[in-house]
Design brief:
Blueprint (H helix, E strand, L loop, with lengths): L13 E5 L3 E5 L10 E5 L5 E5 H4 L3 H12 L8 E3 L4 H13 L27
Parallel strand pairs: 3-5
Antiparallel strand pairs: 1-2, 3-4
Length: 125
């Protein structure tokens, strides 16, 4: 069976037979599920909401979220308390939101272009 253009073979689709034996391919549109939003609160009490995708660009916030989830707190009740001023936190969250669709992942050792096991870390005095 040849799948016509416009049908994504990696997703579920149906075949319907019309009168005369003609096959019609039907692929339902994927349902958009709203992404979970989390609350982040600065030490001066200002709250911000951020999606998990954007939040995942901050290892610090992601660790705090993992700790809260480990304590079996419902996602809607999680408030991440960060010990920094609201203007700094706002800039960090703006950066995370701006980069949330970036796909590239840079490994720390890739920045130097050297193998960490072969590097000379000795200090000459």
């Amino acid at each position: 069976m040849k799948i016509p253009a416009g049908i994504d073979p990696t997703r579920e689709f149906y075949v319907d037979y019309k009168p005369g034996g003609r096959m019609v391919f039907i692929q339902p549109k994927p349902k958009k599920v709203p992404e979970q939003k989390y609350k982040v609160r600065s030490h001066d009490g200002q709250c911000f909401k951020i999606s998990w995708t954007a939040l995942s660009y901050s290892p610090f916030l992601l660790d705090m979220l993992d700790d809260a989830e480990r304590d079996n707190i419902h996602p809607e009740d999680i408030i991440l308390d960060v010990d920094c001023p609201s203007d700094v936190l706002k800039k960090v969250l703006q950066w995370c939101i701006y980069h949330k669709h970036d796909i590239t992942e840079i490994q720390p050792w890739d920045m130097w272009g050297k193998d960490p096991l072969l590097m000379d870390f000795s200090i000459s005095l």
